[in-house]
Amino acid sequence: MATNITWHKGAVSLTERQELLGQKGCTIWFTGLSASGKSTLAAALEQTLLHAGISGYRLDGDNIRFGLNKNLGFGPEARTENIRRIAEVSKLFSDATVIAITAFISPYKADRDAARALHEAAGIPFIEVYADAPLSVVEERDPKGLYKKAKAGEIKEFTGISAPYEAPTSPEIHIKTHEVSINEGVQTILNYLIEKKLIQGDKLVKH
Ligand SMILES: Nc1ncnc2c1ncn2[C@@H]1O[C@H](COP(=O)(O)OP(=O)(O)OP(=O)(O)O)[C@@H](O)[C@H]1O
Ligand SMILES: [Mg+2]
């Protein structure tokens, strides 16, 4: 634990930063089983935002475990620490007026709620997006062959098979990825951002 530290306040407030840059940040927090579509939707959303001239940046579970979180495993404590760090990083991005898009299984409700509380205390919108598909569907998709390995006992503590997943009870957005296309999923999120005045709809119109 760090001691003898003092918060140094910047010379620019959050509102002033948003006005100067003409953009508002927020965190779009995907949660869902492996292969539910978090990374797919996150990448498509990021692409759409950037092509509209809106700064979005993706933090993806696997990618972050190559770097920042390479020292963490998949036990309950490591999963909590994984999410705690990502919550802090996504808060920094969104505080900097970027649309932070996180794609982590984030199986524990308490961890997601902690991420939400961190953002709300900083006055930054936190948008939980439940990428939802039944276990039978994600097992069938199995793009990385992980369910096959988990069922064969080759991967321990695999969410949905040998580790729990606590589904969100009141996410801001619920996308049933077995019922809608990737484009429709992205559009649902864009509509939400427009409705909440986090992005301007006219920027998304292709010229
Ligand atoms: N409507 C849809 N939305 C998102 N993905 C879909 C949809 N329909 C089919 N898919 C497919 O489902 C798979 C989802 O895999 P993806 O890697 O995005 O999952 P994930 O939630 O990021 O999993 P993990 O937690 O293992 O990283 C992809 O192969 C994608 O093409
Ligand atoms: Mg993924």
TrEMBL record:
This is Adenylyl-sulfate kinase. Catalyzes the synthesis of activated sulfate. Residues 24-176 form the APS kinase domain. Keywords: Amino-acid biosynthesis, ATP-binding, Cysteine biosynthesis, Kinase, Nucleotide-binding, Transferase. NCBIfam families: apsK, PRK03846.1. It is an enzyme of class 2 (transferase). GO terms for biological process: cysteine biosynthetic process; hydrogen sulfide biosynthetic process; sulfate assimilation. SUPFAM superfamilies: P-loop containing nucleoside triphosphate hydrolases (SSF52540). One of its GO terms (molecular function) is adenylylsulfate kinase activity. Its EC number is 2.7.1.25. It catalyses: adenosine 5'-phosphosulfate + ATP = 3'-phosphoadenylyl sulfate + ADP + H(+). It comes from Phycomyces blakesleeanus (strain ATCC 8743b / DSM 1359 / FGSC 10004 / NBRC 33097 / NRRL 1555). HAMAP family: Adenylyl_sulf_kinase. Pfam families: APS_kinase. It comes from the Eukaryota. Belongs to the APS kinase family. Pathway: Sulfur metabolism; hydrogen sulfide biosynthesis; sulfite from sulfate: step 2/3.
